[in-house]
Write a structure and sequence with these properties.
Number of domains: 1
Order of helices and strands: HHHHHHH
């Protein structure tokens, strides 16, 4: 297993899981290893935000322009209103990422560990799905 490929997939997953699994497969990692490492990176991104403290969370909210005011026209607020933290956990991996998702959940009153857990679990089906899709594409190319 190539350590540079592992570090790259982990780094991609830390910020945005969508590209992490395909990047790992392109670097020669198996789909399952790519999915696991991408998930680990994503979960680490969420957990770090729980420890980061309020100043860093506020900075991330400003930098990423996270809409902390309720706006029923935005998709993220529609999901939050209807499905709460589980919905955010499933949507964040393909939209706003772990750091912004954690900032948003904590700003809405969720406990930090609960937010990190929901975001981490919400990324797992996406990682598996991307690995499966990538494996099917790779199988079709051979």
């Amino acid at each position: 297993m190539n350590p540079l490929a592992v570090a790259t997939v982990f780094g991609f997953g830390f910020f945005y899981v969508v590209g992490a699994v395909p990047a790992g497969m392109a670097a020669g990692l198996s789909p399952s290893i790519s999915a696991f490492i991408a998930w680990c990176g994503y979960a680490t991104g969420a957990v770090i935000m729980t420890f980061a403290g309020e100043p860093l969370r506020n900075w991330v909210a400003r930098k990423l322009k996270i809409p902390l005011e309720h706006d029923s026209t935005k998709l993220i607020w529609k999901i939050w209103s209807r499905f709460g933290l589980p919905g955010l956990g499933l949507l964040a991996p393909v939209t706003i990422g772990p750091q912004a998702g954690c900032v948003l959940a904590i700003a809405l009153g969720e406990k930090p560990w609960k937010a990190a857990l929901a975001l981490s679990l919400g990324a797992a089906p996406w990682c598996v799905g991307f690995a499966y899709a990538g494996a099917q594409v790779a199988k079709g190319l051979n």
